[in-house]
Amino acid sequence: MEKVKMKFGNTAMYVSVKEENLIGVIEANKVPEGKTEDQIIKEALENPIDSARLRELVHEGEKVCVVIPDVTRAWQRTGIYLNKVVEELNEGGIPDKDIVFISALGSHRKQTRAEHEKLLGEKLASRFQVMDHDCYDKDNLVFLGETTYGNPIYINKIAMECDHIVITGGIVYHLLAGYAGGKKSILPGIAGAETIMTNHSLSLNDNLGESIKAGVCPGGIEDNPVHKDMVEAASFVKPTFMFNVVMGPDGQIAGAVAGNYLTAHEEGVKMLRAIDGVAIKEKADLAIASAGGYPKDINLYQSTKTLINAREAINEGGYIIAVMQCSEGLGGGKEIQDIILNYDNILDREKFVRDNFSIGKFIAYCMCETAYKYNVILVSDIEQELVKNANITVVKTIEDALNIVHKEKGENIKTYLMPHAANTFPLLTK
Question: How far apart are CA 287 and CA 421, in angstroms?
């Protein structure tokens, strides 16, 4: 019998599954050892893809905007790699006074000075200030044109007034864009609110009741209008250079790519898939999944990715036992809580999302849609009353959850275990 640890907040639970019922444990693939983070960063910057080195692309007298993530993505270890990016710019003749840092907040909240310092790291924090992008500040936006999807592209004016824009960030699976990194530094990163919401609303089918477009999903790019619209938006901006990292399961930088913001990103996606994309040969009827503990399971909103990834491993109508503490309850703002609390059917929730679309409402809707298509049982401290309208059952232990499943489906149910479901994405191979 396989016994696996499932993190729960700052503690852990253990689950045992009979070997004849266990299809597999879905974990990130091993990362080749031997290179330090500094070596990985250095090699990427010295060997850019489809581009000259950054130091060769910039020239003395020019102004450079470096677009960086916001603090919610500080796990990308920006304080390490931004040093190397600045060194490249300095070597290219760009002094500190001609480098502008803009944090790609998208529609996120403004940050504190302490958060800026965390992003820059100790070495750079004493040399630079960070400017937060404000998607609602229309006076600091410039109109660049309209995409073929009818999206008016408004971009940060200060960034566009610079001679070069360098985008930085990390590549992970993304619910709407397929993959984060690359073009996302532009849209939603430094785009206007109208541009962001118009783009994100492309995730829904044209007609009420048809829900989310099939191509809009983690890893989806071929038939994903959200991704394609972002790429078009970035083509108006034409970033000079990109640097993106890929993280390993230990939270360290496992890979990095630099150069052309399209083709370098494609190579980064390959790295990501080799680490976090876990091949499975069949789907199960049960997935027992942990978000990976605190802070990934701090609230239900933050834990949505766990449910989205876990559903990729099971058949529709199957069961997800999600191990996530949710010590801060539902999380999110009022509109996010409204969609969970105040609706009892998926159609009315979809209407609510379509009315003044926002990314927060969409993510909450995805969670509710998962509970509509699958049987979701939370092993959590969250109150049952908060999620009853979302068709989610709450219990205190994995054993309690398994008792429900076994009572309804019997004890011989094909199962996957996902100890780090917020980061691992099952890929069904044919």
Answer: 10
287 plus 206 within the same structural domain: no
Domain that holds residue 339: 2-28+277-428
Residues 169 and 262 in one domain: yes
Task: Give the CATH number of the domain where residue 372 resides.
Answer: 3.90.226.30
pLDDT tens digits, one per residue of 72-126? 777 788 989 999 999 999 999 999 999 999 999 877 778 778 888 888 888 899 8
Q: Phi, psi (5° rounding) for residue 49?
A: -95, 125
Distance from the first to the final alpha carbon of the chain? 28
Residue 152 CB coordination number (10 Å): 14
pTM of the full structure: 0.88
Confirm if 179 and 244 have CB atoms less than 8 A apart: no
Closest CA to 273 of 395, 426, 403, 166: 426
Please identify, among 275, 293, 311, the residue that sits at the C-terminal boundary of a domain. 275
Alpha helices per DSSP H over 162-288: 193-201, 225-237, 263-275
Give the span between the Cα atoms of 175 and 330, in whole angstroms: 19
Q: Scanning the structure block, which residue is given the tokens 């949505």?
A: 304
Q: Is 286 helix (H, G, I), strand (E, B) or coil?
A: strand
User: 286-306, pLDDT tens digit by residue?
Assistant: 999 999 888 888 889 888 989
Q: Domain tally for the chain? A: 2
Q: Could you say which of 211, 243, 275 is where a domain stops?
A: 275
Strands (E) located in 253-301: 253-259, 277-280, 284-290
What whole-number distance in Å separates Cα of residue 267 and Cα of residue 284? 31
Residues 165 and 233 sit within 8 Å (Cβ to Cβ): no
